[in-house]
Design brief:
Layout (H helix, E strand, L loop, with lengths): L1 H19 L19 H4 L6 E3 H7 L5 H7 L6 E3 H10 L7
Length: 97
């Protein structure tokens, strides 16, 4: 009986540890991130090293503003290179995808 209780407790701890390791990049459900594969420079139409909503929407016509805002980590209404790569890394997209 003690052995069964111990094994059950151990299994529960393993399950809790596995679930605790899963984090979400976004606070709300988002579309498949693979539909947002691009090189940063290709989106940056004016070459200022920032992507604003108009540039993002021009490159991704299907995009909703909630996606843009989710990627814009500092909330300045622009996506910089670091924010773009943080988004890609969070979704397992390679740097060159």
């Amino acid at each position: 009986m003690k052995k069964t209780a111990l094994l059950t407790a151990l299994a529960l701890l393993v399950l809790l540890a596995a679930c605790a390791g899963k984090t979400s990049y976004h606070k709300t459900p988002m579309p498949d991130p693979k539909t947002f594969k691009a090189h940063f420079g290709d989106m940056d139409a004016n070459g200022d090293d920032l992507v604003n909503w108009d540039e993002f929407k021009a490159f991704f016509p299907h995009a909703e503003t909630k996606v843009f805002k989710a990627i814009d980590g500092n909330g300045d209404n622009q996506i910089d290179h670091d924010e773009w790569h943080a988004f890609k890394e969070a979704h397992g997209l390679k740097d060159h995808d």
